[in-house]
Design brief:
Helices cover 42% and strands 16% of the residues. The chain is α/β, with parallel strands linked by helices. It has a single domain, classed as Rossmann fold. It has a 7-stranded parallel sheet with strand order 3-2-1-4-5-6-7, sandwiched between helices. Helix 5 links the parallel strand 5 and strand 6. Helix 1 packs across helix 8, helix 3 runs parallel beside helix 4 and helix 4 packs parallel to helix 5. The longest helix has 27 residues. The mean pLDDT is 89.
């Protein structure tokens, strides 16, 4: 059976990262899913280089034929983003799949309770960081040839990790106005770029996870707040990180080749 994916991948927030990242673990699970489904070159970019190096060793142990490049990356820093993308292209020659997963939860606060610094930091990482990353990735993809050995011959594919809170308001049990605003922005960015670059062979979509069994969510379970939100989910449970990674792999694959600018919801 032919591989679902081929070529080189670039994932931000790709390791264990920090407990402040609500997507912590999704990037790592995506890296394993990509390797499982045929990606033979992987750049794992994370603010925690040590964790990225550990993840790289784990992937190479499980998938010996995979070339893995761990990178230090602060997505809110333009130079850091440029360096990480440049190193990836220098090592692999191209980027076929990019997943912009790095993010922070920000404070659990309503607007009247928010301070300006926390607001700016959340927007800086979650929205500005995705834009910096996707801008650099698009620049690379525009300059590379379409993969003739890949079904439907894309020049490159980008998946931005948004949130269900990019589509609706957070529950008052879990206020997160800056986080919600940043994820709404990610969807706007995704749609605008998708329309602009689809004619050039670059396919861009977003995934909007609901509550996922990440370390950050698990660390909050004892308060009972998250459980009240889980009780509202028809599936009756949190998503696993591997489930979200599989959805991201679907968006990267030819199985979703006619999806452009989509906000794929995975909320149970």
């Amino acid at each position: 059976m032919p591989s679902l994916l081929r070529g080189a991948g670039f994932i931000t927030g790709a390791a264990s990262g920090r407990l402040t990242n609500p997507h912590q673990g999704i990037g790592k699970a995506t890296a394993f899913s990509f390797a499982k489904h045929g990606v033979t070159q992987l750049a794992l970019a994370d603010i925690n280089l040590s964790a990225a190096e550990t993840t790289a060793r784990e992937i190479q142990s499980r998938f010996p034929g995979t070339e893995v490049l761990p990178l230090a990356l602060d997505v809110a820093n333009e130079e850091s983003v440029s360096d990480a993308v440049t190193q990836t292209v220098r090592q692999f020659g191209r980027i076929d799949y990019a997943v912009n997963n790095a993010g922070i939860a920000g404070p659990g606060a309503l607007s009247a309770e928010h301070n300006v610094d926390d607001w700016k930091r959340t927007i800086d990482v979650n929205l500005h960081g995705v834009w910096l990353s996707s801008r650099a990735q698009i620049g690379v993809m525009l300059g590379q040839e379409r993969r003739e050995d890949s079904p439907r011959h894309n020049r490159g594919i980008i998946i931005n990790v948004a949130s269900m809170y990019g589509l609706l308001a957070p529950s008052l049990n879990t206020p997160a106005v800056a986080y919600a605003a940043s994820k709404h922005g990610v969807l706007g960015l995704t749609r605008a770029d998708a329309v602009a670059y689809a004619p050039k062979g670059i396919r861009i979509n977003a995934i909007c996870p609901g509550y996922v069994q990440t370390p950050l969510v698990q660390s909050s379970m004892h308060t009972g707040v998250i459980q009240r939100e889980v009780d509202k989910i028809p599936a009756g449970r949190l998503a696993s990180m591997e489930e979200i990674a599989d959805h991201i792999t679907f968006l990267a694959s030819p199985l979703s080749s006619y999806m452009v600018g989509a906000a794929m919801v995975a909320d149970g």
